[in-house]
Amino acid sequence: MKLQADAEPHVEILEADDCTRLHIVSSGLTGEQVLQSLAARGAALGHPEPGHVRIRVEWLRASAQPSGVGGDWPARFEQMLRYSQDRGWLEPGTQTLAAHISWADTAPGDKRDSAGGVLRDRQ
User: Fold this and answer.
1) pLDDT at 5
2) Model-level pTM?
């Protein structure tokens, strides 16, 4: 699954039927701003971890199912949760999943600091 997070706040689930991955795509936002955008929609909790945001499992389930997923999606989603729990990506107490943030506006060679700001080499 892929989430698109923008500053409006606008959050969209893309590729909802893909239960083999979970990440967030954003451009022009820091990690804190991505969290704020997702939290405004009830999708995220807590503080951003470097390059990651914690997504609420129930929000993800409720938001993805109306997106035209296959009939076996609930079983595949539960399998994704078990896989995530085995790897420490699922926080049982808060029922949140760690989702990696990918920034669409990062040029080749750019790096991000822990807050999501672009670090560019000075040349």
Assistant:
1) 87
2) 0.79
